[in-house]
Amino acid sequence: MDAAPLLALLLAAVSLSAAAAGDGAHPGYSDEGTCTVDAAGAGVGSGPELRRLEERRPGRIIDITHAYVPDLLAFAPGAVTGPLVHLKESMANGSEYNLSELRLECHMGTHVDAPGHMNQGHFAAGLDVDTLDLDVLNGPALLVDVPRDTNITAEAMEFLNIPRGVRRVLFRTLNTDRKLMWRKGGDMSYVGFTEDGAQWLVDNTDIKLVGIDSLSVAAFEHLISAHVVFFKTPDIIPVEGLKLDNIETGIYMLHCLPLRLVGAEGAPTRCILIK
Ligand SMILES: *[C@@H]1O[C@H](CO)[C@@H](O)[C@H](O)[C@H]1NC(C)=O
Ligand SMILES: *[C@@H]1O[C@H](CO)[C@@H](O)[C@H](O)[C@H]1NC(C)=O
Ligand SMILES: *[C@@H]1O[C@H](CO)[C@@H](O)[C@H](O)[C@H]1NC(C)=O
């Protein structure tokens, strides 16, 4: 089905006034522990002030990717993540260069799942993150607010009333209000899809990209079952761990570009919205 006319309709229906967020660095990030370059450090002098922008030209390009910091939220309670970026060679220790290495579980931070994540047949068939369809990962997307008193159940999906033809939806939930992605891991009361919510999406919508503001698209009590529903056919892409704070609901151009990790069932991805 051609999504264009439907999206035009939605455009008319949804308020698209400028996004609400300010223009500075996100207040959720402290400067401590990030792999930042010290502007006052050796050789840099009084260079330009470093700013980690969450929006470029406020409201126009919105970064919905969480920064990879050493205390990045990990899924399992008590899981230790950092340091993610580690200096292997360091000028401070006499090397002629600085050289960092990256250590990262593939399902940390903002990331995509490949169908092989919870479907052995797809994994065996080689459906890794490198086979995900960039056409699904890039295009018009709808940001919706899920009612805050519920997981994403069949009832909640029905209530959201997302029209046929919409292929990419970012579901903002209570997780954003609770700032769960800004905390250390272990809170399994996050909101996600229940099995019947996932089934309702598969049966009644054309959604192929399912974005969510928690590390898992599935509520903890439905962790396996909801994923299994999504991965029954390999054409639905969950994009997890999105940063959806302070953005107006509505339609944006979404761009997600996962790393081409051959053989992996998950990969970090940079995702941005463009108005
Ligand atoms: C190189 O790494 C050191 C830490 O060993 C740091 O102080 C310095 O700013 C880095 N230099 C550059 C050019 O990144
Ligand atoms: C430099 O070497 C010291 C001593 O071996 C070590 O404790 C420190 O972590 C090193 N720093 C970096 C940036 O590699
Ligand atoms: C969502 O489900 C989780 C269990 O997976 C539960 O702890 C939580 O309270 C539910 N949230 C809401 C808003 O119903």
UniProtKB/TrEMBL annotation:
This is Kynurenine formamidase. Keywords: Extracellular matrix, Secreted, Signal, Stress response. Residues 1-19 form the signal peptide. Belongs to the Cyclase 1 superfamily. Gene3D superfamilies: Putative cyclase (3.50.30.50). It is found in: Secreted, Extracellular space, Extracellular matrix. InterPro entries: KFase/CYL, KFase_sf. It comes from Zea mays.
